[in-house]
Specification:
- The protein is mostly helical and 384 residues long.
- It has one domain.
- Helices cover 77% and strands 0% of the residues.
Amino acid sequence: MSNKPAIRSLFLSFLRLGLTAFGGPAMVAYIKEMAVNSHKWLDEDKFKDGVALCQTIPGATAMQTAAYVGLRARGFVGALASFVGFGLPSFILMLILSSLYAKYHAIPKVISLFQGLQVVVVAIVANATYYFGKSTFRNYRDVFIAIAAGALFWTGVSPFAVIIGSACAGALLMKSDAEPLAVKQDDKDRGFFKQFIVLLSVLLFGLLVLYLIDARLLNLAVLMMKIDLFAFGGGFASIPLMLHEIVDVRVWMDSKTFMDGIALGQVTPGPIVITSTFVGYMLYGLSGAIVATVAIFAPSFLMVILVTPVFDRLKASAYFTGVTKGILASFVGLLFFVAIKFALAVSWDVMRALVGIASFAALLKKVDILYVVVTAAVVSLLIF
């Protein structure tokens, strides 16, 4: 029997959790402890269904899990309260850090700091590649798709095209023999689609307002929404997409500045896609930060509302299973070549190599990523 929390309680509970939300998807375990064990807002089976859904659709897994808990506990308003509460601390802290970076990044000591942190970013992406591959590779077809995806990305093919191609390859090569499942549907599930339509209408109206205010903000919002819609596999999946669009295609910033944004994202709680706040701020100040942040989270939030009632049907589809396997395999290849691109942007010497190796080893040993980043920052200030 699940309890029905107050909206205020949902918001404050997830706000407190969001203040210490380091570790990305690892926060799902803490959300379960709070929502299932402590408050009993959901039973364990329903929570597991939600985690499976959030791991399958694009977007930051922990953020979506927060939205799912709120949705199941108190409907759309509960989903919004949980989602905003969980993500608000990372947005505020990233906004502060972006403002400080814009003012002081040219100071020699700050330059030294970020030269060291860029090495850590290479280690972080390399570690993400390793764990993506470890959890994704099951046979030679996964490896083939990953290699092909990485090679195409390296030769200049858009990662969005690579992902679509990988999805098609997965549907053909890796479809499963899943049996149709008996679909259980709560009464409130029937209202989710109506809520989705209302939210979509609000989002489209917001885009119209941006067009009337400043077309540049509209372009930023559309780009971030596009990235979120293709970021299957969690927040790290957005990195190749952001790098391609922001650095390579639009040249809004160089690789080193983008890497600095990722480094700042690692010392804030919340998902790595909070780098979007940094990008928006560096381009258009506070308004850019707000627009970029809302846009990078809006599509995946809408997906939770839309897909929750029909997820049982989707996961029983043999072709859907193949599509998701193909997409996840492609991200291993994309992340691998992003790690190489980031490594090429670093001015390597013996000390930087040692810091990079030590950071990678610590991450492999599952040392908290915040400790790794802070330690590397101290070393950078002392040595570089």
